[in-house]
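Supplementary notes for students who missed Thursday's class. We covered one full example, reproduced here. Read the sequence, then the structure, then the short commentary at the end.
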Amino acid sequence: MNLTTTEELVKTFNENSKKLSPAQSDVRKDAISAFQKQGFPGRKNEEWKYTNLAPVLGRDYLIEDTTTLNKKDIDGLLLSSLEANHVVFVNGNYNKELSSVNADEPIVISDLSQAGDINEYLTASSITLNDSLTELNTALANGVVITVKKGKVVSKPIIIHFVGDGRKGNIFSNSRNLFILEENAQATFIENYSTIGSNAHFSNNITQIVVKKDAYATYYKIQNDAKSDHVGTTQVYQPEKSNFAATTITLDGGIIRNNLNIRLSSEYSEASLVGLYMVKGNTHIDNHTLVDHAKANCYSNELYKGLLDDKSTGVFNGKIYVRQDAQKTNAFQSNKNILLSKDATMNTKPQLEIFADDVKCSHGATTGMMDEEPLFYLRSRGISEKKAKALLMHAFAADILEYIKLEPLRELLDQTILDRLS
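Structure (token representation):
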């Protein structure tokens, strides 16, 4: 299947639609029709101005899911140093046999395609993004609904592993997951991406997170797979007073686009968005964020930092939207980038749209080469240039790692970064 034509995608939809619950059928049919009209996004689309998907779309991809992966094949991919509940997807499909979830945990996992009254979530991301890839995901995606019960705390993180089996050919996958934290619940989610085999894995994923009254959700997205191309949307709803914290770490990949949209729909809700991207070679990383302050007395803080080397390219497009009713809003956004090579490029666009008059909001962005003054100071103490640069880069990245409250994950990522810098 070549993604530059839509016939095979429509054929795949027609085959998969037989497995859907009647409640979802009409929404999914509308989505595939919308995708047919729009096609894949191109650079004439303002939202895709700096991200060109043509190299990814021009490949041939396997249609059939012929994977034969077993637990031994994926043991090394599962962040094995972390004690966790593991939910495994292979080529975009939930694999219950490879997953392992503690039966004592207060969570319920159900099949998205058979879930009943979730149409408001299937359509919500399309409305927010107005993006053909979102429509394609709505039409084709398999996935799960993970519900954390009222008043319960999930003791160990829930890791969602997206594994591409690229041993027989390139893989194109669509996954759609819905996480619901009921009132006063707490849970930590980690998304992790990996590919087995020599071929590429292009994933088009959507994660939707509903954080209800007094609930607390922590979300980590880890990208460190050289064979992975990825377009992912994380859509967060905070309909009542609640807390949400997201950390996105990108260390390797091909063409990567991360959309993170948060809607604060109740007073005294809080959201934290932090990200770190350390890329080299020809990797392209695009982070698009939107924080929608719909009600008063809410707080959001956003910090993204990037290190770009070789011919890598980066995009940061962050928008804070403060509605008229959102008085007493506190919203802060910052993007800081260091270019380690003359061939690396960065396009950054922080934005504020404010329709309320009693707010505290700020945004800013910086992009430049490594500061010569601290480098000179370290060199004058007898430290080699290579070691001095590594120390400064690690210090730059450490600001983001401090936001990772899960200590084993923080230590694992810190060691991965140190290994790369050395």
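Commentary. The chain has nine helices and 19 strands. The first strand starts at residue 85 and ends at 90. If anything here is unclear, bring it to office hours.
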